[in-house]
Amino acid sequence: MKREDINNFAQLVKIEELKKLYEKIDENYGVKVLTAPTEQTLLVPVKDPISNGSFYAGEVLVTSTIVQVENTKGWAMVMDSNEELSLYIASLDACFEGNIYKNEITNILENAKNNNEEKNRKINQKVNSTRVSFDLL
Q: Which helix (H) or strand (E) segment is 37 a member of?
């Protein structure tokens, strides 16, 4: 597990699990919020495959947060308006980098990753079962 993966995989974890871990971190180490959860919009760049040019397809609403746990800063950006989730993930990011509950964080994220891969595999299996072979026609 790399630090860059935390933001993506943590969004797959149930919010109750993240809240429980966040409360544990805050109680034992203290979470200092440097930048409160803030809603922002990002422009979504798209590359035109024909002209090789690029343009912006629109905007996406995100919520970002910056925190500090002990001497380590953590950051998160999540889709939509979700202040709690952003705060929890930023705290995980700081703890992961600062080696605080790193094994516990890794286990939670690995489980979420594996569950998501299994879910996608099942969906792909269903989709593939509808595949038509035109060789027989």
A: strand 31-47
